[in-house]
Amino acid sequence: MQSLILRATSGALIVALAALAGCGGRQPLQRTEGMKPVPVAVGANESASADALMALTPQERPNRDFEPLTRSQPRPEDPFDLPPGQ
């Protein structure tokens, strides 16, 4: 009985993983027939392309090359670092 449940569970897991593998297509997006173009933003002269809309700004993906801690230093003595109960 347990082997039957184990086989059914593993079969369902394999089917679910196979179905999930097909979800992440990496093809460029195409407009279908009858699809409206991207509306023009307020203050813009023309509508943005799909590539321009997908590009990240520095605020969305900031530069991570700043390291605040450049060297190891011992901590100064802390007068409030007391053992429990004191």
In short:
With 86 residues, the protein is mainly alpha-helical.
Oligomer: single chain
What is the ordering of alpha helices and beta strands? HH
Using the alpha-carbon principal axes, give the shape: flat
Q: Tell me the span between the first and last alpha carbons.
A: 60 Å
Largest sheet: none
Helix content: 25-40%
* Count, helices: 2
Proportion of residues in β-strands: under 5%
Rg is 28 Å
Low-pLDDT segments, ≥5 res: none
Q: What's the average pLDDT?
A: 79
| Overall strand count | 0
Structural class: mainly alpha
Overview of the structural elements:
The protein is built from two helices and no strands. It is 29% helix and 0% strand. It starts with a helix and ends in a 32-residue tail after the last helix. The protein has helices at 2-21, 50-54. With 86 residues, the chain is mainly α. The chain is flat, with a radius of gyration of 28 Å. Residues 61-78 have a biased composition (Basic and acidic residues). This is Putative small lipoprotein YifL.
